[in-house]
Here is the input.
Amino acid sequence: MAEHPTYSIVLEMENAKSIDWDEIGLGLKALAREIAQASATGYPKPKVIISHGGLETDAVSLRSSIGAEAPQLEQVADLAFAAFPGGRYYDLKNNGIPSCEGSVLVFLDSDTVPERNWLSTLLKPFVDQPETICVNGHTYLSYDDFFSRTFALIWFFPMAEGDERFASKRALNANNIAFRHDWISSHPFPAHNGFKVSCTLLMHRLWSEGHKIVNVDARVHHYSPRGWGFFFWRALVTGRDADRKFVELHAPGRARRIVKSFTRWGTMSWRTIRRVTGHARQTGMPFWQIPFAVIVGLAFYTLAFFGHFSLAAGLVRDEVEMVPDYIGHS
Here is the structure.
């Protein structure tokens, strides 16, 4: 049997001043549990890099808060802190890479909670198949009310259960993924104006080099987005990002971009209707709420269309997407 690889984990975290420790603490405890379980089966003690958007001096308060929420984490892993003041999502991921040690690098987000056997499942292909470059886990949205159930149904993550066809085709999850350290070190997440475009570009880079992305059932749940402010902002950004991806992957002229905004509107609207009506009952959504969930989903992708069309038509400039202060989860 192959030797268990050494590994590090990059945990992307927001500025220490804006963290919701009630939620993040659950994820930290689960992470500590998973590391302990992996170590018990032969994996070496890892290094966990907390990559955050605050100042270097925030490391003191971060270490203190992590110790209060999940004291086990510092017992099972070596903690390090990497600051990138004002860093965006992919900046924070790339920021953690130079501090990593070992042959495998795992990326996890601070607003995700690993389920049991997550880490060992994510690392196993690197043991079984030495040629493995990338292992992609299964991320889904948690839910506890109408709004979060609706998001879980219309989002780009597969459902937790009963969604095997969609799950088999899921894209690269930057919040639940592992790479060979030497590969990701030389192929960091590409810099881009978009909000969630870099992971798509990296996925195509993997494919272009002939690497297979190994999808495994290494599960984490992601906290559901909250609030109407997020709803409107994220919908518009989703549309603008769709145009950006189309430009990067196909280099179309403006006319094709505009046509694409309309065809994608139709595709996503039909997908929303199918997913809500087909999966709503398994979320526990009452039958009478299903039509309202369809309406909310169609509203989301109609707003996404306006975001897509406005950028494709040149009505707005392609500027760097920054998360507004009023946004909680992304």
